[in-house]
Amino acid sequence: MKLTDPVSSIPLVGPSYQKKLAKLEIHTVSDLLLHVPNRYLDFSKTSKIKDVRAGEAITISGVVNSIVNQTTKKGRRMQIGQIEDETGKITVLWFNQPFLVRALYPGTTISLSGKLSWFAGRPALVSPEFEITKKGTPTTHTGNITGVYSETSGLSSKWLRSRVKMVLKSTDLSKLEFLPGEILKKHNLVKVDKALLDIHFPKSEKDSERALKRLAFNELLFLHIDSITKKKKWQKTTPSYKIKAKVNEIEEFKKSLPFKLTKSQILVIDEILADFKKSYPMNRLLQGDVGSGKTVVAALASYLIFKNGYKTVFMAPTQILAKQHFNSLNELFKNFGIKVELVTSGSKKAVSKLSDVLIGTHALIHRSVDMSKVGLVVIDEQHKFGVEQRSHLLKNNVSPHVLTMTATPIPRTIALTLYNDLELSILKEIPKGRQIVTTWLVPPKKRNGAHSWIDSEITKKGSQAFIICPLIDESEAETFKDVKSVIVEYEKLKNVFKSKNVGLLHGRMKEAEKHEVLQKFKDRSIDILVSTPVVEVGIDIPNATMMVIEDAKRFGLAQLHQLRGRVGRGKKKSYCILFSDKKTERLLAMTKTHSGFELSELDLKLRGPGEVFGLKQSGFRELKIASWTDTKLIKQTSVVAKEVLNNPLRGEKNWFKNKE
Questions:
Q1: Cβ–Cβ under 8 Å, residues 176 and 192
Q2: Whether residue 308 is found in the same domain as residue 259
Q3: H helix or E strand, kind and range, residue 195
Q4: Is 233 helix (H, G, I), strand (E, B) or coil?
Q5: β-sheet bridge partners, residue 505
Q6: CA 387, CA 372: separation in Å to the nearest integer?
Q7: For residues 284 and 542, what is the distance between their CA atoms, to the nearest angstrom?
Q8: Residue 509: exposure state from Cβ atoms within 10 A (0-12, 13-18, ≥19)
């Protein structure tokens, strides 16, 4: 069996199981082997029945004496059996598994592992792992250190364990090693074949730890190799047009601004100018905190493109953000005769050939815009654009300059790893005049007082408020349950704020409906906007001074910070209210820290990498085996990646490569 084979090549894996495995992102034999346990149960201690003690995790072997189905008073089906060995008998219980009565008939030899508890005043094993045994055949699920896997409906750890064992037995793992011996020795790594065996069936805790380190090393190594390879490929690309930047033109643009650029902005502009002089196109990621002035930097780059006689295309992830960029750039370019055009799904006429800056979503731009005269592409919110979408820019190894931007605060180590194929620029300062949003953590007992204060602020100062309800499901897309939840909250809040106009916004509304609601909010005909986190990125309502977040503990710090960034965009004093029944270190940090980068680092430390980016809060690739908190291993593999690129890897390496 080859590791690149589809899972359907594994015995007993038919179309039904194939679909279930796909839910766990398992499509090939290698995907199955790299679906590693997330924890282990130590059932290595074997005991005779007379020696068992309550509370111990143990394994016993014996013969089924009896087993029957019973129904409890509450209607649950229960299977009660009795197992005996030469030293005594013990009761065993399972729930809702009536088929066991047929499978474990009296006289069957069985091995059971679990924690001993009590039933009807007697010691008993409740819902233990078990397997029918034969003399001379080693056990798979009992009597060992046993891996517990991420599961899905119809796929238990036991089923996955059995298939993994089958694959390991029928695959020649000896040919999989691709790293030279000196690298293995230098970094204290076990060989790949041993790592795959020990991660699933370790003999000791140390075995599983060493196996995990090796497989994590592989994952990070190929992530670095992929990035470096992409970067080298990009450096062989030719720019669509050479861009010359004149000092007097740059100064002219700077003087037109109603504010002074920060040191960070000036530094990034210098980096962009240096990119324009290179033999290959710019491919730079501009990472900036909420309100740090990324759009102004992109505008100056677009201005220089205009001065050279070419066009700029702005790609936004949503039509709402595209409209916002259109308004911002029109204001910045009003003194220069630069024609800005918004490409929308409702546009009846063709895109004008006289436009200098075109703005729209990626889908509309690719469909509507002739890219032949485009010198610069600006992509907003980098992670929302897939590889295929970015590949549209590259034609015959020629590409316009590309500037991608994100307001999502990403810890530096992770940004340098995820975006190693891009040059990275960071805006660290907030422009003068941008206010700090006062943040309060409010317990349930003060909710009514907070609502009264919000009502008062709207009445006295004409302010507006966002009230954000969390997603129920941990997924990027809003579900019907989430919508139902926000609608219920919306109805409640209409009764709380009876004298105010309360609006509703969620991701399952049609684009036109969202536009209408946001326009009403912007026009101040809505006082309070109740929403799911669809407002997280980029929506700009200067008169909104209050961001209220329900059940704040459900959000990551980076997401809370971005939501907070929706207020404080005008001249009025602004506030963020975090409703929570718990006063956690994370939420207290929000009241003290206003840097998105500091908060993202803290979130990584406190909650771990899986929850910082989430399923899915931000769409970033999640590591399958390695951890973003392991900065030491990330740095080690970065160095090794550069070494192995100059010395071709050996062995069957392709099976492990990261998939986009």
A1: yes
A2: yes
A3: helix 192-200
A4: helix
A5: 531
A6: 21
A7: 29
A8: middle
Return mean pLDDT, the chain: 87
The verdict on residue 80 lying in a domain is yes
H or E stretch at 562:
helix 557-564
Q: Which amino acid is at 456?
A: S
The count of domains in the chain is 3
Per residue in 373-420, pLDDT (tens digit) is: 999 999 987 655 555 556 667 777 899 999 999 887 777 778 888 788
**Could you tell me the two tokens for 424?**
């990275």
Q: Are residues 412 and 462 in the same domain?
A: no
Q: Give me 176's structure tokens.
A: 């999989």
- At 609-624, the pLDDT tens digits run 555 443 344 445 578 8
| 277: number of Cβ within 10 Å | 11
Enter the tokens of residue 308.
Answer: 């050279």
Cα(559)–Cα(502) distance, integer angstroms:
24
Query: What is 337-383 written as a DSSP string?
Result: TPPEEE--TT--SPPPTT-SEEEEEHHHHHHH--GGGEEEEEEESGG
Question: Mind giving me the DSSP string for 100-146?
Answer: HHHHS-TT-EEEEEEEEEEETTEEEEES-EEEE--TTPPPSSSSSEE
Which residue bears the tokens 């889908």? 363
For residue 83, the SS3 value is strand
Q: Which long-range contacts (CB under 8 A, 24 or more apart) does 272-275 make?
A: 272/297, 272/300, 272/301, 272/403, 272/425, 273/245, 275/401, 275/423
Q: Write out the DSSP string of 446-509.
A: GHHHHHHHHHHHHHHH--EEEEEPPPSSSSSSPPHHHHHHHHHHHHHHHHHTTTS-EEEE-TTS
Neighbour count for residue 408 (Cβ, 10 Å): 25
Q: Do residues 360 and 492 both lie within one domain?
A: no
